[in-house]
């Protein structure tokens, strides 16, 4: 069966079969229904190869022109003629391009319904009209390419959309235009030209719109005239509107929006439709570039915000090991401003990727440094954080273990020695020697008990488990009891107590305050090896009660004043380490004081007097009076 045999009228079939010009007909899906022998001779395909299949001879770059002609014929009025003639090119089967003039007409059924299109192809060579048409088309394509290049160079989405609309007006000669974006079943007017600006942002239902019809048709361009509804979205705002042309734009193979061209004066030809479809296609690319760029900018801004908000110092090094990024935390940790860091090497050693280094800076800050490589770029991300406190705590713990071992070893050794002596030489010892040995064992056991008690209190303080009862109590009574207990301990340390008359009651915990004052007096005696007066004073001050304990001992180095209340810390001034201890006494004092809502501080006993030593501890408690 040949193509012309599908034509039922014998005469019509004979005319098609014998025609000197190629005759090709397609249905509404652009599948070939007629392909006569002249078409076989002109294009090289046999009828059986093309019947029922998409038209094979339209070059990709001319498909928009082909679509525009078909769409224009669908909307032509009866008085405008039923044929469009264009000069163009078509493929031969061997790949050659053939210059042809095509007269295309719309095929209709008896009831007027469109059945497809028929084209009569004439070969052309030295036709001036054809040459002029091709030259004009080439000019338009060049201008379109220039516009597309400008669009692709712009990365701001709003600007891109406005330029697309402006380009539409220039290329098609439309009286107005706009770009609508598809958003969750709605259309939003995001760009316009030739229409009131207050219409920007207007929305409409997608399904009932012209864009919805175009999507359902499977085509990419649509033309609607005054014979059909023109109130889609807001286009009726344009006075005298008689024709609306629209083309779809795709982003990542999905419909993103549509470009509208509105005509209220001039008529619309297939060339304007072709340019509209081409511009709409390129608009998708330009919008895609702008959207991708906006996403990159957003992602980078997010990454920058995360980096800037990080408490860790973060530096990004290029392949040459030079700093390219330096966040605020890096500035704070190292003291090096970004302007002094970028473009230079890191001010400290870089660990092997995946490994961690702990590095001291000249400022005394200890950094924990980790590096990771970005394989795609060859860059190195260096993360570093301040571990000075952790390092100090680690050192303090090591010192604590060594000190505790020493503090435990001495009394344990004495207890073991005297116990062994009693066990092995009991009969040889006098009663006085036995009593002396037992007394020594008891004294050393008491020392061990105090040491264990300090350890337990220190552990509870570190775990915030110190229990206190906040209530009014008699501070005078507590002071007198503590001082009386210490007056009998040493002949070298006279302890004096001065209490302001009428001292009101304190608001806090009496037992905790007793422990605090006992520890302060114990330290005053301990760190005054050569003796000296210890003065305890108490007086009211506004809404507080102030208690001070002053000694004439070795004093505290000013550099250690802020540290002596930390765990496992002892000041070094005057060789305080030789007095023993594990550095928990003042830590417990501070925690018990804070648990009552009070304050504790340390300073020199006689500030401003050269050559004078000694320490002054100051306790402040709330007054209940």
Automatic annotation (TrEMBL):
PAS domain segment(s): 13-77, 299-353
Organism lineage string: Bacteria, Bacillati, Actinomycetota, Actinomycetes, Streptosporangiales
Family annotation (Pfam families): GAF_2, HATPase_c, HisKA, PAS
Organism: Actinomadura viridis
The enzyme's E.C. designation: 2.7.13.3
Keywords assigned: ATP-binding, Kinase, Membrane, Nucleotide-binding, Phosphoprotein, Transferase, Transmembrane, Transmembrane helix, Two-component regulatory system
Protein name: Sensor-like histidine kinase SenX3
Membrane-topology descriptor: Multi-pass membrane protein
Protein's UniProt keywords contain Phosphoprotein: yes
């Amino acid at each position: 069966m040949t193509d012309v045999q599908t034509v039922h009228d014998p005469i019509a079939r004979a005319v098609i079969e014998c025609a000197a010009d190629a005759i090709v007909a397609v249905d509404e899906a652009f599948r070939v229904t007629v392909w006569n022998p002249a078409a076989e001779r002109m294009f090289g395909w046999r009828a059986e190869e093309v019947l029922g299949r998409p038209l094979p001879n339209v070059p990709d770059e001319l498909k928009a022109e082909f679509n525009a002609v078909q769409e224009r014929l669908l909307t032509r009025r009866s008085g405008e003629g039923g044929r469009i003639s264009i000069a163009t090119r078509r493929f031969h089967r061997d790949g050659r391009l053939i210059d042809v003039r095509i007269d295309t007409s719309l095929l209709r059924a008896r009831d007027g319904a469109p059945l497809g299109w028929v084209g009569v192809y004439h070969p052309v060579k030295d036709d001036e009209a054809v040459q002029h048409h091709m030259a004009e088309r080439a000019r338009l394509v060049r201008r379109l390419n220039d516009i597309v290049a400008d669009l692709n160079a712009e990365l701001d989405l709003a600007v891109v959309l406005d330029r697309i609309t402006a380009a539409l007006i220039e290329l098609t000669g439309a009286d107005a235009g706009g770009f609508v974006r598809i958003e969750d079943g709605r259309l939003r007017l995001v760009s316009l030209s030739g229409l009131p600006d207050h219409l920007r942002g207007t929305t409409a239902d997608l399904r009932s719109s012209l864009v919805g019809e175009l999507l359902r048709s499977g085509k990419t361009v649509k033309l609607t005239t005054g014979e059909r509804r023109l109130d889609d979205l807001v286009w009726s705002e344009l006075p005298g509107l008689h024709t609306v042309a629209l083309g779809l734009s795709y982003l990542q193979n999905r419909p993103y929006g549509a470009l509208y061209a509105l005509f209220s004066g001039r008529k619309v030809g297939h060339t304007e439709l072709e340019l509209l479809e081409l511009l709409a296609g390129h608009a998708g690319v330009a919008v895609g570039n702008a959207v991708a760029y906006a996403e990159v900018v957003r992602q980078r801004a997010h990454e920058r915000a995360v980096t800037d908000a990080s408490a860790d110092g973060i530096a990004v090094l290029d392949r040459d090991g030079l700093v390219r990024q330096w966040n605020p935390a890096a500035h704070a940790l190292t003291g090096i401003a970004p302007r002094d860091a970028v473009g230079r090497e890191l001010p400290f050693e870089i660990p092997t990727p995946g490994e961690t280094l702990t590095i001291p800076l000249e400022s005394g800050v200890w950094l924990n440094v980790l590096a990771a490589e970005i394989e795609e770029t060859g860059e190195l991300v260096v993360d570093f954080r301040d571990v000075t406190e952790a390092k100090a705590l680690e050192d303090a713990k090591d010192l604590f273990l060594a000190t505790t071992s020493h503090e435990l070893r001495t009394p344990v050794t004495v207890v073991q020695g005297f116990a062994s002596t009693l066990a092995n030489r009991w009969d040889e010892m006098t009663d006085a020697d036995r009593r002396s040995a037992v007394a020594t064992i008891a004294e050393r056991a008491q020392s061990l008990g105090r040491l264990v008690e300090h350890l337990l209190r220190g552990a509870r303080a570190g775990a915030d488990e110190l229990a206190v009862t906040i209530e009014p109590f008699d501070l005078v009574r507590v002071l007198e009891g503590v001082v009386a207990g210490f007056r009998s301990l040493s002949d070298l340390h006279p302890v004096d107590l001065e209490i302001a008359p009428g001292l009101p009651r304190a608001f806090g915990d009496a037992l905790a305050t007793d422990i605090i004052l006992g520890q302060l007096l114990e330290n005053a005696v301990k760190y005054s090896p050569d003796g000296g007066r210890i003065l305890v004073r108490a007086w009211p001050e506004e809404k507080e009660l102030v208690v001070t304990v002053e000694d004439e001992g070795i004093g505290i180095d000013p550099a250690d004043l802020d540290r002596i209340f930390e765990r496992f810390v002892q000041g070094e001034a005057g060789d305080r380490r030789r007095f023993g201890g594990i550095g928990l006494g003042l830590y417990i004092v501070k925690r018990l004081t804070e648990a009552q809502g009070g304050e504790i501080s340390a300073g020199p006993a006689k500030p401003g007097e050269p050559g004078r030593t000694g320490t002054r501890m100051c306790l402040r408690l709330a007054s209940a009076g």
